[in-house]
Amino acid sequence: MGCGKGMTAVVAAGLALAGACARSERSAIPDLAHHRARHAMEQARWDWARVYLEEDLEVNPDRHQSVLDLAVAWISGHGGGLANGLLFLEDYLRQCPDDQESRRRLVTILTRLKEYDRGRHWAEGFDDHPDAHFLRALLEAGDDPQAALGHLKATLEADDRHAAAWALLAEIQQDRDEVSAALEAYRRSLALDPFRAKVRARLERLLKQKGETDEAHRQLRALEIVGRLNQSRDAAVLSVVEELRLLRELQSLTSASGFVFDRRLAEVLLRMGHLDEGLSLVEGLEKDERFSVEDRLVFAKIMGGGGERQHARSMYQGILRLDPGNVTARASMAVLDCGIGRHEEARRRMEEALEGDPWVAVFHAGLAQALLLGGDEEAAIAHWETALALAPWETPWRRQLVRILRARGERNRAEAVL
To answer: Which residues contact 416 (CB under 8 A, 6 or more apart)?
Structure first.
């Protein structure tokens, strides 16, 4: 085990290949473009992801996951790539027609673009998922409101916490002059998601038409608050102090509560260091099945960044129970372990991760950090080199490796890394 104490055979093999990577013999890593694309996708680096996914598909044209990832990279990135993304998503669904989640994503986008005929074509393959019924309702609302109502009934019977379905139901009822029912449906939608600005605007106008001026004024002020909060989420134009003040005002004005509101309030409270109230809200959120792995990752990162490492560690452990293969959670736990002096535990965690998947950049970077702090500098260098071969855009890793090499007097090697 010449690669450090306790090194597994797989990790040792990774170290052997790391030297080859440092000499630019990148072919030593099988499917290098595929692994680079994976890391770019995990880091939401959509431009890099597209480059490597296209490279991977030149060699592996039948890798369906790369087609789907390329669609996501075009749709999620900037620069007008939506049209390209839709074409790749349609191509993927022709190859994998049973992927209902991707089918719903495609129809959702087409509906927003008002490409209803194209949306109906892809909706023909839907299953009975509540969101599928809702999308059918969206597609039919303009031409056949009665059919849309049938789909909305199916949606809400399966999931009465579907805020968008209540909102669409309210619009149809309002068009049919069913004012009382529409008001109730608008209120149900906002109780589930108080940040839906268009729904709140429709409710305010309907209240005004009905002569309920006091509530209409409250809703108008709430609409102004929601507009600022939504803008801040998109463009970070509010300080966290102002965001909390607006959330408190919205809460007081409309009795806002529930999962969606508590999730945002908890995030702001934790960012401000109000731990008792924030952690209390998180405890409640964790009991709700809507609290996704992505939500948990966000809160774990906030806690870790705020010095609440044990709470963050507990959150990451919960994520791994739900999703044992989650790369971000596993690597982040290693970073936390290093931060509290658990170098050996972090090293073991990353070695085990590399046994299961030897070409994940963040696993090599995490192991490199643990080895460095544990005193095995040579092995750490080899893992930094492998990490950078897999993710060449990671400037912080490159800088750290350069600092280590320069401190060892290996200036030529450091310059080569730069």
So the answer is: 22
Element of type H or E holding 229: helix 213-235
Contacts 24+ apart (CB under 8 A), 314-322: 318/286, 319/293, 322/293, 322/296
CA torsion through residues 101, 162, 171, 214, sign: negative
For 283-337, how does the pLDDT look when each residue is reduced to its tens digit (9 = 90+)?
999 999 999 999 999 999 999 988 888 899 999 999 999 998 898 898 888 888 8
185 phi, psi to nearest 5 deg = -70, -40
Whole-structure pTM value: 0.84
Q: How many residues does the chain have?
A: 418
Cα 69 from Cα 57, distance rounded (Å): 11
* Alpha carbon distances (Å) from 307 to 193, 244, 303, 334, 338: 30, 20, 6, 15, 13
Query: What angle (nearest 5°) sits at the alpha carbon of residue 75, between those of residues 202 and 48?
Result: 145
**How confident is the model at residue 233, as a pLDDT?**
65
- At residue 307, the pLDDT reads 84
What is the CB neighbour count within 10 angstroms for residue 341? Answer: 10
Whole-angstrom distance, CA of residue 126 vs CA of residue 94: 14
